[in-house]
């Protein structure tokens, strides 16, 4: 039995033989830099981690390899592997992240992307290829594609025509992410892609599932658009936590408030619910704006926790702060109803802050 299998077994059967509390099985969903932040934080909490990664990228090195070889775009998968590497500063971790310069055929390609591409052809299975790279990097956990099929994102975007009520259909992740208009809705092509069986199994057996942060329309919402993946997320017994972005992204979510992020997620998956939403306290001022976020979270039947999770002076999550916020949120007793607990003055709802009232309970 491997170390990861031993840990999983302990999680199912109770405390470890030495009396320590078993580590939780945590699944993180997303893509790109947002998922990298979540994984960097998660590895401070547990060694049993599964990253489930979007596979719709069509730009840069990933787009080229996808078009030329008909493979899954490897870039976001590679970044997740690097985030979980035993030694993030070691030679192998730096090598897989290295991008070739120059002007030749290799210019712009990441070494890791090429390794994943080569192993996929040799082994005939993208999951086996990712597991092999994971062994080379001695990763803390496993990296999986959300679907075995490369996907295409299509969006309805307004603001591109003279009439603001008219939407234009934009296709492709890069095009959607960089459009100057306002994204109204996104779809996947094909509309009902299969989910990776390993990904749905990980979600079904997880103790904690974390969705976000990341590019909202192209890295976060796609997970609830894959029918089998959404079904697993709806029915899992895991504690589900949504981590909001620190700021709106130019193009994709320009002008979006924290409240709006929650609304569009709910609109895309009305049956999807989470128990907790983590929001950076510096991103949403106290008072009316936090009340709006709380009401929006009601659509997801979630309670909101405001905590300092930002790296000072940036729009990036600080791994240590995010880990502390996640640890505190998921150690709280599970909510008994859909009523929200929001940090700040009492607003007819229970009040909770990530800065106090921590109760040590089991991950289950």
Summarize the structure in words:
With 364 residues, the protein is α/β, with parallel strands linked by helices. The protein has a domain of 91 residues. Helix content is 37%, strand content 15%. Strands 3-2-1-7-8-9-10 form a 7-stranded parallel beta sheet, sandwiched between helices. Helix 12 links the parallel strand 8 and strand 9. The two termini are 23 Å apart.
Features:
about 35% helix; single chain; 14 helices; about 375 residues; 10 strands; disordered C terminus; alpha/beta
Structure, briefly:
The protein is of the alpha/beta class. It contains 14 helices and ten strands. Strands 3-2-1-7-8-9-10 form a seven-stranded parallel β-sheet, sandwiched between helices. The chain has a three-stranded antiparallel β-sheet with strand order 5-4-6.
Q: What is the rounded distance between the termini?
A: 23 Å
Can you tell me the residue ranges where pLDDT is under 50 for at least 5 consecutive residues?
1-13, 337-364
Mean pLDDT figure: 87
**Proportion in β-strands:** 15-25%
Largest sheet: 7 strands, parallel
Overall 3D form: globular
InterPro entries: CofD (IPR002882), CofD-like_dom_sf (IPR038136), Gluconeogen_factor (IPR010119)
GO molecular function: LPPG:FO 2-phospho-L-lactate transferase activity
Protein name: Putative gluconeogenesis factor
Subcellular location: Cytoplasm
Write the layout of secondary structure elements.
Layout: H1 3-13, E1 25-30, H2 32-42, E2 48-53, H3 60-69, H4 75-83, H5 91-97, H6 111-123, H7 126-137, E3 142-145, E4 152-158, E5 167-171, H8 173-178, E6 182-189, H9 197-204, E7 208-211, H10 216-220, H11 227-235, E8 239-243, H12 258-268, E9 276-280, H13 288-298, E10 303-307, H14 319-331
Helix pairs in contact: 2-4, 2-14, 4-5, 4-7, 6-7, 9-11, 12-13
Subcellular location: Cytoplasm
Keywords: Cytoplasm
Function: Required for morphogenesis under gluconeogenic growth conditions.
């Amino acid at each position: 039995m491997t170390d990861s299998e031993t840990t999983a077994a302990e999680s199912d059967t109770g405390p470890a033989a030495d009396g320590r509390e078993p580590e939780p099985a945590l699944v993180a969903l997303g893509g790109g830099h947002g998922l990298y932040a979540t994984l960097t934080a998660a590895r401070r909490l547990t060694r049993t981690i599964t990253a489930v990664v979007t596979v719709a990228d069509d730009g840069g090195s990933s787009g080229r390899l996808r078009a030329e070889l008909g493979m899954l775009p490897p870039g976001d998968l590679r970044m997740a592997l690097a985030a979980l590497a035993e030694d993030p500063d070691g030679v192998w971790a730096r090598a897989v992240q290295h991008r070739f310069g120059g002007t030749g055929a290799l210019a712009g390609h990441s070494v890791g992307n090429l390794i994943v591409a080569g192993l996929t052809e040799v082994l005939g299975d993208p999951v086996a290829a990712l597991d092999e790279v994971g062994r080379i990097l001695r990763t803390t956990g496993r990296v999986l594609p959300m679907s075995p099929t490369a996907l295409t994102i299509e969006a309805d975007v307004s603001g591109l025509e003279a009439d603001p009520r008219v939407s234009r259909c934009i296709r492709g992740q890069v095009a959607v992410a960089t459009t100057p208009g306002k994204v109204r809705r996104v779809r996947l092509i094909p509309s009902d892609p299969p989910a990776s069986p390993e990904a749905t199994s990980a979600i079904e057996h997880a103790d904690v599932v974390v969705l976000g942060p990341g590019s909202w329309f192209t890295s976060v919402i796609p997970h609830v658009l894959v029918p089998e993946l959404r079904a697993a997320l709806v029915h899992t017994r895991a504690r589900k936590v949504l981590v909001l972005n620190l700021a709106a992204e130019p193009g994709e979510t320009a002008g979006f408030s924290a409240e709006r992020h929650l609304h569009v997620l709910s609109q895309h998956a009305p049956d999807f619910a989470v128990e907790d939403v983590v929001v950076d306290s510096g991103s949403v001022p106290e008072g009316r704006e936090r009340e709006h976020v709380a009401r929006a979270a009601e659509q997801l039947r979630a309670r909101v926790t405001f905590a300092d999770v930002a790296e000072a002076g940036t729009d990036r999550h600080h791994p240590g702060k995010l880990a502390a916020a996640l640890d505190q949120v998921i150690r709280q007793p599970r909510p008994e109803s859909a009523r929200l607990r929001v940090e700040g003055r009492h607003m007819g709802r229970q009040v909770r802050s990530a800065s106090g009232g921590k109760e040590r309970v089991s991950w289950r």
